TrEMBL record:
Its EC number is 4.2.1.1. GO terms for molecular function: carbonate dehydratase activity; zinc ion binding. InterPro entries: Carbonic_anhydrase, Carbonic_anhydrase_sf. Belongs to the beta-class carbonic anhydrase family. SUPFAM superfamilies: beta-carbonic anhydrase, cab. This is carbonic anhydrase. Zn(2+) binds at C40, D42, H96, C99. It comes from Denitromonas halophila. SMART domains: Pro_CA (SM00947). It holds the Pfam family Pro_CA.
């Protein structure tokens, strides 16, 4: 597979890069993305493919289960750089149905040491869904429950994101909007879950 990656790069250079050389020359000078994408590391959710965007248009941070953890220095730096230096106006948190991280909330392997700790920042999503299901008139299948937890996790991570003081200030100042999406691998469609739009600036 490693050799295939290198062969793929050569094909890229000979075709796409050569055909769009002026575009890539401009990209080499500076980047001006307009969206920060916080998504899952899942290999089946390639950001530029499912959004049909070009290199340079989306600033990307990915991790297991698209989690926004308050103690994650990696993400904290990404957020700070996005808002303070790239002046990105929109952040998307995108989950996806069939997410292995969300499935692992119920089936953590005894051999995993770090995954369960990481998923602590998503467990509240499952608790919220299960709490609502206690009063549901009809039981849901495991697949239906999973989809609800995926959706709730996106909302939960939006809450975590807005708990960052400098993120909240940017939203309140009308400089930033936060969006929650879910990608459906069965249809290829992105479903909008929630949005915290930029507030109109006062005159």
């Amino acid at each position: 597979m490693i050799n295939d990656l290198l062969k793929g790069n050569r094909r890229f250079v000979e075709t796409v890069f050569e055909r769009e050389r002026p575009y890539f020359a401009e990209l080499s000078k500076a980047q001006h993305p307009t969206v920060l994408w916080i998504g899952c590391s899942d290999s089946r959710v390639p950001v530029n493919t499912i959004t049909q965007t070009r290199p340079g248009e989306i600033f990307v941070h990915r991790n297991v289960a698209n989690i926004v953890a308050g103690a994650d220095w990696n993400l904290s730096a990404v957020l700070e750089f996005s808002i303070n230096h790239l002046n990105i106006p929109d952040i998307v948190i995108c989950g996806h149905y069939g997410c292995g991280g969300i499935l692992a909330l119920d089936n953590t392997s005894e051999h995993d040491q770090y995954v369960p700790i990481w998923l602590n920042s998503a467990r509240e999503a499952a608790h919220r869904v299960d709490g609502r299901l206690l009063t549901a008139s009809e039981p849901l299948s495991a697949v239906q429950r999973h989809r609800l937890v995926v959706e709730e996790n996106v909302s939960l991570q939006m809450e975590h994101l807005l708990a960052y003081p400098f993120v909240a200030r940017a939203v309140d100042a009308g400089k930033l909007a936060v969006h929650g999406w879910v990608y459906d691998m069965d249809t290829g469609c992105i479903n909008v879950q929630a949005s915290r739009p930029r507030r109109p600036r006062s005159e």
